[in-house]
Amino acid sequence: MRNYSVYDRAMASLPNEPTMTAWHTFLQAHARLIERLEAELQLECGLPLSWYDVLVQLSEAPASRLRMTDLAGAVLLSKSGLTRLIDRMNADGLVQRCPDPGDKRGTFVQLTSAGLARLRDAAPIHLRGVQEHFGAQLSAADALAIASALQKVVAGLSGPPAHDFIDP
Amino acid sequence: MRNYSVYDRAMASLPNEPTMTAWHTFLQAHARLIERLEAELQLECGLPLSWYDVLVQLSEAPASRLRMTDLAGAVLLSKSGLTRLIDRMNADGLVQRCPDPGDKRGTFVQLTSAGLARLRDAAPIHLRGVQEHFGAQLSAADALAIASALQKVVAGLSGPPAHDFIDP
DNA sequence: CCAAACTCGTTGTATGTGCAACTAATGTAC
DNA sequence: GTACATTAGTTGCACATACAACGAGTTTGG
């Protein structure tokens, strides 16, 4: 039997079978859920999920406004991506840009009353979809298990940024 | 107290709090995991995840080849998206198009030896990332719970296509 | 058979996204 | 206080993706 010494060390840290099953199911569930929720929200409200996310974040923020950078972090978008998204939503009247008096570099994104109205239309539809396609399929124990397990995954990702460093 | 009769019926099917916690954690975990795995694979192999997915699907297919439509389904991409992706991978020599002798409309995408070599480089890196960032954070029970719970979600999405139908 | 309906894959076009470079404003060190 | 570094947001550019329309080939119903 040949001895793949370097490869064997790599193999020792490769995923086992239940892990890969969970991983594939996780990917598939995400892809199908997002596809379905996006389609339903678009069909019934004419609203993309990315717009909905912005409206939710703003509505939950103090004074219904956030700085561009904070909003970009909240909706998991790059700065340039958010600039263009806010351009579009602003053109539709759902948000507006306001200068930050305390920092002349900064810009607040402010939810407008039209934006709030749009969110009130969309929220029941989106939440019904989350319940129907996600929540309704899960027992109470399932929901708690998913939350606690994936919370550990998220926590693990917060720490080590990358593999870029050679031991000094 | 006012009676929002229609809204109350809607409220009755809205997600409860554990469901929303699981949902938010699920979204956050997915976004961060994909971001990290994409960055690591790109940095260490110069390979996008979408290319990796294609190589994996082809390598697992009989004769290392698949029809365009089948491959598009497997990697969750539209037909036009796959056409352009295969253009790029073909230009890099990782796959090639072959006519299907049995159906002159059809095109097989065939894994090349260069593509297989590239996959052999990339697989340990990607799988190490899955183990490190996902598998290693989970107990055996966690992995089984995620797989079984999300499998139910996937199954629920396979059936009802949309809300387009009014009761006939 | 043949015409209509369908399927396969590609193309034109529009949209969305990130990276790098840029401007403007702020913070820091001396 | 002045220079250097840092941060906030926008823009040019390239790339990736979806939708609709299309041409070529196949299947189906009569």
Number of continuous helical runs of chain A: 7
Greatest contact between two chains: A-B, 60 and 59 residues
Q: What's the N-to-C terminus distance of chain A?
A: 37 Å
Work out the radius of gyration of chain A. Answer: 21 Å
- Envelope shape of chain A: globular
Low-confidence stretches of chain A: 1-10, 162-168
Oligomer: homodimer
% residues in beta strands of chain A: 5-15%
Strand order of the largest sheet of chain A: 1-3-2
Based on DSSP secondary structure assignment, what is the total number of beta strands of chain A?
3
Order of helices and strands of chain A: HHHEHHEEHH
- How can the largest sheet of chain A be summarized? 3 strands, antiparallel
Q: Would you tell me the structural class of the helices and strands of chain A? A: mainly alpha
Query: Which whole number gives the mean pLDDT of chain A?
Result: 85
The helix fraction of chain A, in percent, is 55-70%
Summarize the SSE layout with pairings:
The structure is a homodimer of 168-residue chains.
Chain A lengths: L4 H7 L5 H29 L3 H12 L4 E3 H7 L4 H13 L3 E5 L7 E5 L1 H21 L6 H19 L10
Helix pairs in contact in A: 2-6, 3-6, 4-5
Chain B binds a DNA duplex (30 and 30 nucleotides) through helix 5.
In short:
The first copy, chain A, has helices spanning 5-11, 17-45, 49-60, 68-74, 79-91, 113-133, 140-158, and strands spanning 65-67, 95-99, 107-111.
Question: Could you explain the architecture of this structure?
Answer:
Chain A has 7 helices and 3 strands. Chain A is mainly alpha-helical and 168 residues long. A 3-stranded antiparallel sheet of chain A has the order 1-3-2. In chain A, strand 2 and strand 3 form a beta hairpin. In chain A, helix 3 crosses helix 6. Chain A is globular and about 55 Å long. The N terminus and C terminus of chain A are likely disordered. The interface between A and B is large, with 60 and 59 residues. Chain B binds a DNA duplex (30 and 30 nucleotides) through helix 5.
